[in-house]
Amino acid sequence: MDDVKSRRAENVDATRSALVDGALRLFAEKGYAATALDDVVRAARVTKGALYHHFPGGKLALFEAVFVEVDARLGERIVAGLPAGVRGWSLVEAGLDAYLEACQDPVVRRIMFQEGPVALGWERWRELDGCQARDLLDATITSLVEEGDIRPQPQALLSRLLFTVLGEAGMSVAEAEDPDAARAEARTLLLDLLRGLSP
After folding, report:
1. Number of folded domains in the chain?
2. Is the pTM above the cut of 0.85?
């Protein structure tokens, strides 16, 4: 009996993953407005009934799942870009480099910066944006304060301000005609701003 339940759970997970993966490709290629649910079910090789079973909210619920998936992958890329054991300003630089590089990815640009605010609306976009990266940012700020690299600050406010600035920097890189130059400029400016908090 457990085997049957396990196989059923695997099938449910596989169907949901197929829908999210198929929708991700289509939303990134065509955008939210131009993507039809018929295209998504065709790409995922499932029925429309299966789509509504997993995403009762239809297209918007599916886009939200895609957004969360891309956001999670972005967080994983940042963590993967951090060398083991780095601390202080080396940690900041490595994390910043990984983030700004990931922002050049066409999927990140399209889903996170272009389609997200429009499809989800400003409030929901802000609520979901950077869920993975916020914890990493908070931990980095705490570490910098504890090690005396920056002066003690109101943690929640500093995290919120830095998150907004990082988002704008990422968007500027994503939308730039010359992303490499934009990334270098953003990196220099962000490090200068952060080092301004040094004791």
Report:
1. 1
2. yes
What's the pLDDT score for residue 2? 52
What CA–CA distance (Å, rounded) separates 97 from 145? Answer: 21
Q: What is the pLDDT of residue 9?
A: 59
- The span from the CA of 41 to the CA of 50, in Å, is 9
What b-and-e string marks burial along 171-196, b requiring 16 or more CB atoms within 10 Å of the CB?
A: bbbbebeebeebbeebbeebeeebee
Q: Which two structure tokens, joined as six digits, stand for 137?
A: 């940012």
For 18, residues 6+ apart whose C-beta sits below 8 A from its C-beta are 44, 45, 46
| CATH number of 71's domain | 1.10.357.10
Q: Which two tokens stand for residue 25?
A: 């490709």
- Residue 131 pLDDT class (50, 70, 90 cuts): confident
Range of the domain at 137: 2-195
From the list 132, 129, 97, the residue with the least C-alpha distance to 112 is: 129
Instruction: Read off the amino acid at residue 69.
Output: E
Provide the 3-class DSSP secondary structure of residue 177: coil
Find the length of the chain: 199
More confident position, 3 or 27: 27
